């Protein structure tokens, strides 16, 4: 099995070379047909048009067809000390639309992906509430339910790019993100069940949320946000959460950094102040040039990236019609527009949004263009409903320096060369 | 409906011993600390046994594992070393995190006195206390952390205000464009491999 699999596992450069060759071949076939040679894929009866395919009992729960097996999560070994407290990346270069398939949606754990059965699941609400409560999983399913689509972006997405162009592919530079349709209950309804008279004035109150895993990943959230749009979710994209995404229950914190989307959620405590846990002091604080650091940088600012063409998705079809496409999102509202530049930011054209932007969710954009085969410096620039315009990396560095680690929402540049290959670069 | 309405009647009241088992967090003012104490030398022994394999004998870190000591005065440098001593604003976070999530792979196996002792040793490794220091619930909040004043609340709405006010340029935005950095020169991107169990399973 592994022998067979290996044949489908080209290295990136082999993959690129192979794709380029295939592209050239296709072009040649097209030319041959123009000269009158018939295409045997049409004129000869193929096996699949004569024999039988798989029965309906072959695949009770299916996986993508084998030809798509490069559309997978990838990790970067040198980023972390081990693979348990680590990150992997969504193959955004190969996806379209906005919904991320759960099976290749990125993972970020601090003590691994734990296995927690619904029967063993407990959610506690305690602290400044009228009645501290314990819920079973079955209890949660009896609360009024909501469905919402939101992006979850790791605070560290693009973090390796602060100092310069490092990783060669949209998957690696922008793939700590996924976008799912969540079904669950509002955190507000659970807090109401426990009663908030004991909390007094909500303005200066917080909730501390933590997971059932060893890392706990505890974070402090202002009560105002907790009562606004935070969800306690148990389904994503129609089915139960995947183990690695917090099965059976996770927190969904719209627009805010992924670290706060507590997985395997086990406890919500209403508190007088922030706990200032490890994940909001040592981590997820943003060091500025003078050595001071921002804390509580919760919102993920407007951001975009061209997913194709990109280093892992080169142009293989030659000149002519070209679809430039990508994703845009904002933690402060809806995407209102995306501009695309082909000359490194000298001139911009407004891209077409596949659908109107929605609040704190991924938006797909397209720029249908005609490629003349010359080099391009491709950029995308997102705008959101708060009036924010996605900045350049230079602009961000002027405020923050190079050591922020988190919240890099700078404009990305792909250098598309005459052979159709693309590279992650920075431009003046 | 008011937030203090009776609700749906779902769930049950949490018992005190259940809350005590899960509500372990410790706040900067010491709220949540259990009684107990531990000294530097006890901490050194425990650290050697349970922590040093990753964090080093002197909390200086092994390989890629986190360094817990050192780095004072490096926060404004090109490559800051952010440790408990150089960066962490509150000692409470150290107690809370060690108690709840360390050692890595065997979390929640330490007794309160052990946590006090380990933290006393980490303070000593950062030259913040003397070798005869004992950390306890009583003196906990008297320990001052060097970077306690090093943090400020997110100010993007003011310090980055011009990202909202700029009318984005569409034409003739700059004279020239030069490539200043290339990822391929650095060449640290993993080769693309698709050797996932999922992929091979469907191929088989």
How would the blueprint of this fold be written?
The complex is a heterodimer of chains A (428) and B (204).
Chain A: H1 2-7, H2 12-34, H3 40-43, E1 86-87, E2 108-109, E3 122-127, E4 133-136, H4 137-140, E5 146-153, H5 170-174, E6 177-186, H6 187-194, E7 206-211, E8 219-222, H7 223-226, E9 231-236, E10 239-240, E11 250-252, E12 265-271, E13 286-287, E14 293-295, E15 303-308, E16 320-329, E17 335-341, E18 349-350, E19 352-353, E20 363-371, E21 376-384, H8 393-400, E22 413-416, E23 422-427
Parallel strand pairs in A: 3-12
Antiparallel strand pairs in A: 1-2, 3-4, 5-6, 6-9, 7-8, 7-12, 9-10, 9-11, 13-14, 15-16, 16-20, 17-18, 17-21, 19-20, 21-22, 22-23
Chain B: E1 12-13, H1 16-22, E2 37-39, H2 40-50, H3 52-55, H4 91-101, H5 112-125, E3 134-136, E4 151-153, H6 156-159, H7 162-165, E5 179-182, H8 183-186, H9 197-203
Antiparallel strand pairs in B: 2-3
Could you explain how this protein is built, in words?
The complex is a heterodimer of chains A (428) and B (204). Chain A is of the alpha+beta class. Chain A has helices spanning 2-7, 12-34, 40-43, 137-140, 170-174, 187-194, 223-226, 393-400, and strands at residues 86-87, 108-109, 122-127, 133-136, 146-153, 177-186, 206-211, 219-222, 231-236, 239-240, 250-252, 265-271, 286-287, 293-295, 303-308, 320-329, 335-341, 349-350, 352-353, 363-371, 376-384, 413-416, 422-427. In chain A, the strands form 6 sheets. Chain A has a 5-stranded mixed β-sheet with strand order 4-3-12-7-8. In chain A, strands 5, 6, 9, 10 and 11 form a 5-stranded antiparallel β-sheet that branches. In chain A, a hairpin with a 5-residue loop joins strand 22 (413-416) and strand 23. Residues 1-29 of chain A have low confidence and may be disordered. A two-stranded antiparallel sheet of chain B has the order 2-3. Chain B is mainly alpha-helical. Classes of the chains: A alpha+beta (428), B mainly alpha (204). The interface between A and B is large, with 124 and 91 residues.
């Amino acid at each position: 099995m592994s022998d067979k699999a290996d044949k489908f596992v080209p290295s990136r450069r082999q993959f690129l070379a192979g794709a380029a060759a295939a592209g050239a071949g296709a072009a040649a076939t097209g030319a041959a047909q123009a000269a009158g040679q018939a295409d045997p894929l049409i004129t000869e009866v193929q096996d699949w048009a004569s024999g039988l395919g798989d029965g309906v009992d072959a695949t009770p729960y299916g996986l993508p067809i084998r030809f798509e097996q490069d559309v997978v999560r990838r990790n970067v070994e040198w980023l972390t000390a081990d693979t348990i407290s680590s990150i992997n990346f969504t193959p955004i270069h190969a996806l379209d639309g906005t919904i991320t398939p759960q099976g290749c949606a990125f993972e970020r754990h601090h003590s691994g992906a734990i296995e927690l059965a619904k029967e063993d699941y407990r959610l506690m609400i305690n602290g400044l509430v009228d009645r501290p409560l314990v819920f079973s999983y079955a209890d949660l399913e009896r609360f009024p339910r909501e469905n919402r689509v939101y992006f979850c972006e790791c605070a560290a997405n693009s973090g390796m790019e602060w100092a310069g162009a490092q990783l060669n592919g949209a998957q690696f530079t922008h793939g700590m993100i996924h976008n799912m349709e969540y079904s669950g209950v509002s955190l507000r309804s659970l807090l109401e069940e426990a009663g908030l008279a004991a909390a007094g004035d909500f303005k200066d109150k917080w909730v501390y949320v933590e997971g059932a895993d060893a890392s706990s990943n505890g974070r402090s959230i202002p009560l105002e946000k907790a009562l606004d749009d935070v969800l306690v979710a148990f389904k994503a994209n129609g089915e139960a959460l995947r183990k690695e995404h917090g099965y059976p229950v996770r927190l969904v914190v719209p627009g805010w950094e992924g670290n706060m989307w507590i997985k395997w959620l086990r406890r919500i405590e209403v508190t007088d102040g922030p706990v200032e846990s490890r994940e909001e002091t040592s981590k997820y604080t943003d060091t500025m040039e003078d050595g001071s650091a921002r804390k509580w940088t919760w919102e993920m600012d407007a951001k975009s990236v061209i997913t194709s063409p990109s280093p892992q998705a080169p142009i293989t079809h030659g000149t002519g019609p070209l679809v430039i496409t990508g994703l845009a999102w904002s933690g402060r509202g809806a995407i209102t527009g995306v501009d695309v530049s082909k000359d490194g930011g000298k001139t911009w054209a407004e891209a077409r949004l596949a659908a109107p932007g929605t609040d704190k969710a991924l938006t797909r954009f397209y720029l249908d263009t005609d490629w003349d085969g010359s080099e391009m410096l491709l950029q995308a620039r997102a705008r959101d409903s708060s009036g924010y315009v996605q900045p350049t990396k230079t602009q961000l560095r002027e405020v923050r320096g190079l050591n922020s680690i988190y919240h890099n929402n700078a404009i990305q540049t792909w250098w598309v060369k005459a052979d159709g290959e693309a590279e992650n670069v920075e431009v003046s | 409906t008011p937030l203090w309405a009776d609700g749906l009647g779902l769930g049950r009241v949490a018992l005190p011993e259940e809350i005590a088992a899960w509500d372990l967090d410790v706040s900067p003012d010491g709220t949540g600390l259990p009684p107990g104490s531990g000294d530097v030398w006890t901490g050194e022994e425990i650290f050697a046994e349970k922590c040093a394999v990753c964090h080093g004998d002197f909390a200086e870190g092994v390989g890629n594992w986190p360094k817990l000591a050192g780095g004072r005065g490096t926060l404004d440098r090109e490559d800051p070393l952010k440790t408990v001593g150089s960066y962490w604003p509150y000692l409470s976070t150290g107690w809370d995190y060690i108690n709840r999530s360390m050692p890595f792979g065997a979390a929640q196996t330490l007794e309160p006195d052990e946590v006090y002792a380990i933290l006393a040793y980490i303070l000593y490794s950062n030259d913040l206390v003397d070798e005869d220091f004992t950390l306890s619930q009583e003196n906990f909040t008297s320990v001052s952390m060097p970077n306690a004043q090093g943090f400020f609340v997110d100010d993007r709405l003011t310090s980055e205000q011009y990202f909202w006010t700029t009318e984005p340029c569409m034409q003739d935005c700059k004279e020239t464009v030069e490539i200043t950095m290339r990822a391929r020169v650095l060449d640290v991107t993993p080769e693309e491999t698709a050797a996932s169990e999922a992929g091979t399973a469907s191929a088989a």
